[in-house]
Design a protein that fits this description.
By secondary structure, this protein is α/β, with parallel strands linked by helices. It has 13 helices and ten strands. 45% of the residues lie in helices and 16% in strands. It binds 5-amino-5-deoxy-1-O-phosphono-D-mannitol. The site of 5-amino-5-deoxy-1-O-phosphono-D-mannitol (M6R) has 16 residues, from helix 4 and helix 11.
Length: 357
Amino acid sequence: EKGTYPHYMLKEIDEQPFVIRNIIKQYQDANGQLKLDQNIRSAVKEADRIYIVACGTSYHAGLVGKQFLEGIASVPVEVHIASEFVYNMPLLSQKPLFVFISQSGETADSRAVLVEVKRLGHKALTITNVPGSTLSREADHTLNLYAGPEIAVASTKAYTAQIAVLAILAVDTARAKGITLDFDPLQELAIVANAMEALTDQKENIERIAREYLSVTRNCFFIGRAVDFYVGMEGALKLKEISYIQAEGFAGGELKHGTIALIEDGTPVIALATQSHVNLSIRGNVKEVAARGADVCVISTEVTKEEGDRIVLPEVHEYLTPLVSVVPLQLLAYYAALHRDCDVDKPRNLAKSVTVE
Ligand code: M6R
């Protein structure tokens, strides 16, 4: 039930800190240590390459997951859009493991890949919010998201839950491979939950920014480098699906290869600058678009911030910044849709679960 909330989407955005805390609880043993199903641990450890297959927001979570699995656990990962993969399968490695990410567990495009993968005799793990769903039943293993029912068509808490569970999977795999890590993932996730809360408490500020940048525009660009690029793609998807503003997420460095031609006076650009190793270069892109008239809204962290940034995120482990940087993007999309009188929870032409290919 929505309770006192005007929309499910806003309620689900606000639930994110609780979902993260619930995930911590579900994935820890009696001593507070991370625990994962032994069979899943072996399946991931034995794989020479992971193929993540998903659609929409779940695909965007997969892109972040690749960073975790490669960076933390040294497992090569490919991330594929399900509807493309099924007709255009790459040459597979010797011992692949397929990881399906799906909030609903019912997405037909992903299921078509799962059916094909099983026919070829490969192993599959499904990460889903619905344990008894088709993708969960038909895969060899399931990891649950424990996010509670997600009703709004625009996925919010499932995305952050997927990223949190992928981080847990990566850390468990690293440990299984004997890689020593200098951070405690559950503690870091607890810090994330608090940071998310600090952001959901800043609704007035974010609503003001949405009004300023997005109430009349026809388009909006999200730019970022490294993992910020992936979060920008998710921010753009959120904005387009519920506010009908044409929005795209771009890698900062790609702008000069074409997209910058679209920047004119007053074009809103949301720039994510949360990664210290690329801060200098993304700041360069911010200057380039601003010089061509863009209205730039920079989102940074305590470490990367510069004067004039509109939203400064509380500090969390650098790997986990997508979990907090996406929150203002979700809220910006929500308020943009609200101010443009759009049906926030049930946008036109879309269904919550896409059960046709
Ligand atoms: O249930 P799934 O995670 O498999 O759904 C995949 C996409 O249809 C879904 O994420 C869609 O992109 C959302 N409406 C985005 O907010």
